[in-house]
Amino acid sequence: MTYESLRRETYLANMELKAAGLIVLTWGNASQADREAGVFAIKPSGVSYEALRPEDIVVCSLESGEKIDGDMRPSSDTPTHFELYRSFKGIGGVVHTHSRHAVAWAQAKRDIPCYGTTHADVFCGSVPCARELTDDEIGGEYELCTGKVIAETYRERGIDPLAVPGVLVACHGPFTWGNSAMKAVENAITLEEAALMAFETELLSGGPAEPVKKALLDKHYLRKHGKNAYYGQK
Question: Is 207 inside a domain boundary?
């Protein structure tokens, strides 16, 4: 198989990250899964966005995480993507960036509070910051452990990964996901905007502010994502 369509969609999602201003140099990647085929496609490691071609995209197994097709090495973050696909069954795309304002919250080791409706349109509550990895986790299978720590955060806090499709990894940066790579890109864009808005809210407030009212949070999230959603066109 050539996986031409999967490669093309993954390539376009990666290029959209660059166009949206979320990527500096090669700091980030997007992947997309084809669960029926049992594979996911991801950007190759260290390749500049200016040089990237659809045929460079690497295809890996959803069962083992190993490369099964492509001439280049997959992203060094591939084990993290693999673990997220394995842990969060409903997702079809994953994005990782080092976008400035989201990284600032990750380096402060703080959740991004939900202060308003822009945030609530996509994330049904605070965007969590996962715990720091231990020395053993860093020295061992670091990227795989990063995915495991993300999954642990959602499991232990009782967070639905489909309702809060993004996370911060302490001292590292954000990961987002969605039903496709392009949706994960959209969520990464929203996460970066929410991170900046929350930062400026706290500047104006002189510190942490009151979170958005639950009724307003629920209204904005559910009008887009609930069973009776009415935002947009059918």
Answer: no
Find the distance separating the first CA and the last CA of the chain, reported in whole Å: 35
Phi, psi values for residue 119, rounded to 5°: -65, -45
Taking the CA atoms of 193, 209, 151 and 216 in sequence, report the sign of the dihedral they define. negative
Count how many domains the chain has. Answer: 1
For 159, the 3-state DSSP assignment is coil
Residues that are catalytic: 121, 231
Nearest Cα to Cα of residue 146 among 183, 213, 105, 94: 94
> What span, in angstroms and rounded, lies between the C-alpha atoms of 141 and 163?
28
Q: Please give the Cα distance from 124 to 113 (Å, whole number).
A: 11
Neighbours of 39 (CB within 10 A): 19
Tell me, yes or no, whether 111 lies in a domain. Answer: no
Residue numbers of the domain that contains 34: 4-106+124-191
**pLDDT tens, 173-224?**
999 999 999 999 999 999 999 999 999 999 999 999 999 999 999 999 999 8
Model-wide pTM > 0.90:
yes
CATH of the domain at 11: 3.40.225.10
Summarised one tens digit per residue, pLDDT across range 59-79 is 999 999 999 999 999 999 999
Local structure of 32: helix, strand or coil: strand
